[in-house]
Amino acid sequence: MAEAMRHPDIAPALPDQGSPSRGTPDRGLFIKTYGCQMNVYDSGRMADVLAPLGYRLVDDPAGADLIVLNTCHIREKAAEKVYSEIGRLRPLKARRAKAGGRLVIAVAGCVAQAEGEEITRRAPDVDIVLGPQAYHRLPELVALAHRATGSVLDTTFPTEPKFDHLPAALSPSAVSAFLTVQEGCDKFCTFCVVPYTRGAEYSRPVAAVLDEARALVGRGAREIVLLGQNVNAYHGDGAGGAWSLARLIGALARIPGLLRLRYTTSHPLEMNVDLIAAHRDIDILMPHLHLPVQSGSDAVLAAMNRRYRADDYRRIVATLRAARPDIALSGDFIVGFPGETDADFQRTLDLVDAISFAPSFSFKYSPRPGTPGALLPRPVPEALKAERLAVLQARLDAQADAFHRAAIGRRLPVLFDRAGRHPGQRVGRTPYLQTVHVAAEDSVIGTVREVAIVRAHANSLEGRLVLPPAEVAA
Ligand code: SAH
Ligand code: SF4
Ligand code: F3S
Fold first, then answer.
1. What distance in Å separates the CA atoms of residue 330 and residue 411, rounded to the nearest whole number?
2. 74 lines ligand 3 (CB under 6 A)
3. Measured between alpha carbons, how far is residue 348 from residues 173, 187, 293, 355, 394 in Å?
4. Nearest to 366 by CA among 71, 76, 6, 81
């Protein structure tokens, strides 16, 4: 069975790009984003950086002069996707060259960081390889690529944070906008590439975050999702010293016009008392938390270097639920980590039964070159990994179904963020991150409305606007 994601799709569309400034040529930019929300945020910033050069986003690679593949290295399959995509782009590039033009292909993101040299060797069609910390240098790299015949590589970790060099975006924001507040990771879980691809943990200063949040709200954002690989380890410089994530959330919650706040992804070890209290005290902080657990076995957790035991996780969840009884929890799980026995796996199932999760992610362990996990003895055979994943997913699916069904008959505040696929359909989210489809006017987009939930599907809900359509509190 393929590894599967059992989670609502929370990536909003890339923000529209403003029109290029006067006198600059009009060029097509196609960005394909893989991986986590941080990559979605980064893709938006890359579009912002390229806008002053006349690049505007197109949705068909055939109309592009520059194609950026923003890649993910987290599992082998994710990393391999980039090479097949480059293969698909080859004829396009050849056709353009034949017509006397030039299509520039850039590989960005975590595969670029991890396999920079290898990409240039395996895929000579690639003109630019740039790591996640080099986006602000894109205009320079594009200019270099136009002059060069070979490929241009920048996978350095500049000491100056890239955020200081990114221009302010001017285009309308998505209703639900991502805002990266923390990047990188010092936790070194033995299965994970992130500390190597994203570098050391870094928190953006409070003032920069508040400015960007105010600007997003000014451009139409009504929900902000704070992003970081370890977002709850946030400790950005602010008035009086380093601020915790809870303190940052408190300040953000006072921005007029901002209706909802979320943050992701959190590490259980960093789930401290003030952040838990924020879930009780701050109305606009939504009652949904993504808190990856990975395994329910202490032996496996120790081998993964997660630095908590299954009981610690249970205790954190109990404290969270005491503070905010309706909080929905989603998890990440890895099955088949080296040395995982049937009894270990059973402990994961026991934990799932004890917690009861909202829609979650689950994966087969994928050994990543350069991580300590890849060198561990007693690998679990692929077939057994697949079997365990199927069992775990059946259990998680049943919990997700129950979670959605429990909403039927309830009235929930829904923040509408986009039009649906069918005529007259609008789509929004409940506080618990469930997608809801409702028949409604366009004017509901960007507002929170009360919705009566009438039906539950596998990955979404269906509801009816409660009339009169007065705006309700988030
Ligand atoms: N920072 C987050 C997770 C980031 S990666 C945290 O600490 O929880 C997202 C998820 O991908 C992880 O939670 C994990 O479940 C999964 N993952 C990471 N590396 C993996 C690997 N080598 N094989 C399988 N799944 C992996
Ligand atoms: Fe990876 Fe662990 Fe860091 Fe999460 S905490 S990004 S899983 S090393
Ligand atoms: Fe993938 Fe890099 Fe995100 S490896 S999950 S894109 S941090």
1. 22
2. yes
3. 40, 22, 9, 11, 13
4. 76
Number of the ligand 3 atom closest to the C-alpha atom of 198: 7
Q: Whose CA is nearest to atom 5 of ligand 2?
A: 187
> Which residue bears the tokens 């059946």?
394
Which atom of ligand 3 approaches the CA of 37 most closely?
3
Output the pLDDT for position 21: 45
CA of 266 to the centre of ligand 2 (A): 9
Residue entry with tokens 């940052």: 248
User: Could you give the CA distance from residue 23 to residue 54 in angstroms, rounded to a whole number?
Assistant: 9
Half-sphere exposure of 65 (CA within 13 A, CB side): 16
Pocket of ligand 3, candidates 10, 34, 36: which has the most ligand atoms within 8 Å of its Cβ, to mutate? 36
Q: Which ligand is nearest to the CA of 363?
A: 1
Helix (H) / strand (E) element for 55: namely strand 55-57
Please state whether the peptide bond connecting residue 172 to the residue before it is cis, i.e. omega within 30 degrees of 0: no
- Whole-angstrom Cα distance, residue 145 to residue 131? 16
Low-confidence ranges of the chain (pLDDT < 70): 1-25, 158-160, 468-474
Nearest ligand atom owner, CA of 369: 1
Ligand 3 atom closest to Cα of residue 39: 6
- 61 in helix, strand or coil? helix
* CB of 38 closer than 6 angstroms to any ligand 3 atom: yes
Q: How far is the CA of 107 from the centre of ligand 3 (A)?
A: 14
CA–CA separation, 330 vs 358, rounded Å? 5
Structural domains of the chain ordered from first start: 2-154 (3.40.50.12160), 162-405 (3.80.30.20), 411-471 (2.40.50.140)
User: Which is it for strands 435-439 and 425-429: parallel, antiparallel or unpaired?
Assistant: antiparallel
Instruction: Please tell me the distance between residue 292's alpha carbon and the centre of ligand 2 in angstroms.
Output: 10
Considering only CA atoms, which of 137, 228, 136, 222 is closest in space to residue 172?
Answer: 222
For the CA of 132, the nearest atom of ligand 3: 2
> Max Cα separation, the chain?
67
Ligand 2 atom 2: the closest Cα is on which residue? 189
The two structure tokens encoding residue 220: 């139409």
CA dihedral sign, ordered 268, 270, 273, 275: negative
Q: Give the number of the atom of ligand 1 that is nearest the alpha carbon of residue 373.
A: 22
Q: Could you tell me if 52 and 69 are in contact, meaning their C-beta atoms sit under 8 angstroms apart?
A: no
Q: What is the pLDDT of residues 201-260, one digit of tens each?
A: 999 999 999 999 999 999 999 999 999 999 999 999 999 999 999 999 999 999 999 999
Q: Note whether 374 and 114 are within 8 A (CB).
A: no
Ligand index nearest the alpha carbon of residue 35: 3
